[in-house]
Amino acid sequence: MLTFILRRLAAGVLTVLTISVLGFFLLYLGARDTARRIVGDTAAPEIVARKQQELGLDRPIVVQFFDWAGSALRGDLGRSWFSGQPVTEALASRLPVTLSLTIGAILLTAVVGTVLGVLAATRRGWVDSSVQVGSFVGAAIPGFLVALVLVLVFAIGLQWVPATGYIRFTTSITGWLSTIILPIIALSIGAIASIAQQVRGSMLDALRLDYVRTLRARGIPNRRLIYDHVLRNSAGPALSVLGIQFIVMFGGAVVVEQVFSLPGLGQTAVSATIQGDIPLVMGLIVVTALIVLLINLAVDLIQGWLNPKVRLS
Questions:
Q1: Distance (Å, rounded) from C-alpha 187 to C-alpha 248?
Q2: Tens digits of residue pLDDT in 1-22
Q3: What is the number of structural domains in the chain?
């Protein structure tokens, strides 16, 4: 098991390193115009040159990369070129907002998607048809459209929750829930559809296996058969899809945070990209890559626990 973990961890670290290198060179090769944007279009050439020197853009890009990489390994991702705020500080204040959305959405997706998939596979008939139709509709509707409908109905129409804004967990638990419940639902709809279909298909395949018929012939209660054997055997593919959905949700939070005016990484990513704030964009790339690494590692570990054969791959 330890070899399996180390192998997966090494592959993940190599992926993060590759993404960081590619991201840095692609961003910094086009960063020379950033100095003029900071000082203004009417600034004299010597002022622009001075700003480039201040930002370190006058040095060879390879030297810039190794300086950045050395600082990044110490936990220092530099400072924003526009606000002067440390990148780690800017991201640390916004990451909990985005993580609260994605973790809440993935939990809701796992529970609802699994329940719907199990019902569709075991009940069949109109239940199966309803789940399939609902999954198709849920997967086809864009997340931002779901978010807008939720705001119009539950925030503006019924006034059950605020339409925009964010209340921190440390300030008020109920207030925090009221500001993230609609964004979580908006993020979850499409993912629930995918998980329900995956669980349904995997369970139908598992129910046709010989060992299931043998267990049923031995008088194993149907509920125990479904939840102790069939669902466990079907969990692997669904778990892989769930891991992918978490990554998709993390990216989709950019749009949802804009709709609900949440101070998460989405707003930071949009503003940093528009401004050309390269250190902040690089920080976002590194943080996102690390989160993807952790999610993939967690999925691999759970897969290895559910199916020992995975550890040999």
A1: 9
A2: 667 677 777 877 888 888 888 8
A3: 1
Q: How far apart are CA 146 and CA 136, in angstroms?
A: 14
Give the pLDDT confidence of 161-194 residue by residue, as tens digits: 888 788 888 788 888 888 888 889 888 888 888 8
Other Cβ atoms closer than 10 A to 119: 17
* 173-207 helix and 87-123 helix, angle to the nearest 10 degrees: 40
Residue 97: closest CA among 289, 257, 307: 257
C-alpha 240/C-alpha 51 separation (Å) is 47
Q: Is residue 235 part of a domain?
A: yes
Angle between helices 231-260 and 143-150 (to 10 degrees): 70
Cβ-contact 206, 192 below 8 angstroms: no
β-pair partners for 86: 79
Within a domain: 215: yes
Residue 150 lies in a domain: yes
**pLDDT averaged over every residue in the chain:** 80
Query: For residue 201, what is the domain's CATH number?
Result: 1.10.3720.10
Does residue 65 lie within any of the structural domains?
no
Residue 152 contacts residue 160 (beta carbons within 8 Å) = no
d(CA 284, CA 96): 14
Q: Where are the beta strands (DSSP E) in the chain?
A: none
∠ CA 160-161-166 to the nearest 5 degrees?
170
Strand-pair partners of 79: 86
Q: pTM here?
A: 0.78
